[in-house]
Amino acid sequence: MNAKSENWFGQDVQPGEAISTELVISESYSSRDVAIPIRVRRATKPGPTVFVTAALHGDELNGTGAIRSMLADPSWELKAGTLLMVPVLNVLGFERHSRYLPDRRDLNRCFPGNSTGSMASRLAQVIFDSIVRRCDYGIDLHTAAVRRTNFPNARADLDNPTCLKLAEAFGSGIILHGKGPKGSFRREATAAGCPTIVVEGGEVWKVESSVADCMLRGVFNVLKTLKMMDGETDVPDHQAIIKQTKWIRAERGGFMSMHVSPGDSVFKGQTIASNSNLLTEEHSRLEAPFSGIVIGMTTLPAVQPGEPVVHIGRLANPKVARQHDEHVATDEIQRTALEHLATNIQVTEPTEAIES
């Protein structure tokens, strides 16, 4: 047994104990504490320390729903290590239903922070020093930005073997390679020795059950892979690893008709969206520039020239697209996500009479 007590945010946590606590990150205009609620759960056996965070962008709530499901479910047991569950990391943005902090800064571009900098930098340093620097691994749950939706996917620096292991263990079926922007939570955490992955899925301002279920299963998969939970992982035999993505942008203004859904595989030259005026006189279409998988898309049907419409991840091998389609078709959670996300947009078959 790991008999040593650990102090988390001013409270001693014994082996086998779980506590609800909070991390004070700032003060309000009335001098009251601004704090992040955190659940710390320790197993009786020693093991890794892992954080699972959500709502780093305060309007991205699918991860919040997934973590709350973990907190409300008494059926799972932590066998080794310590787990930090943070349903809302950016409480100031969350309380305003906003991606950003009150000063319009993006907290996810301010890490590892600065104790004498802006409010965002100061918040970032407290979070980084108090959570990231004390953890061995991290999982950060996100959604698409406002007016967009994403099919669940993991994002990681695949040049880092540990990040690759975590991304594959999560089992989303789609893995995007990238270090993340400078100052982003996952990039700076990984650089500081805490390999961290990001998972994106769904859209802002809601908890979509199908997306939250994907995230919840993925978190459990990672904990099982790290030997922190018992049980077999539920991971596809083949996962699509994507190293290049492209937003396909509108060429004309007008009303879009979508011909693909988030999570669909597409082939080069396939019509993915068409564009018409309000009297349905079609005058433009968008084609896939390469074969790949639809990572995400706009949820706004009206566009102007240059606005992003469909986000495609490039696949070098069409065989991977077939494997992805087969996995989604046979996996109930991902199939449900595909069907659900398709209801957020109107998907139709392309017509023949389109002027490019």
TrEMBL record:
**Which Pfam families does the protein's record reference?**
AstE_AspA_cat
* Matches recorded under InterPro entries: AstE_AspA_cat (IPR055438), N-alpha-Ac-DABA-like (IPR043795), N-alpha-Ac-DABA_deacetylase (IPR053138)
Provide the alphabetized UniProt keywords.
Hydrolase, Metal-binding, Zinc
The keyword ATP-binding appears for this protein: no
* Keyword Signal set for record: no
| CDD domains (UniProt xref) | M14_ASTE_ASPA-like (cd06251)
What protein does this entry describe? Succinylglutamate desuccinylase/Aspartoacylase catalytic domain-containing protein
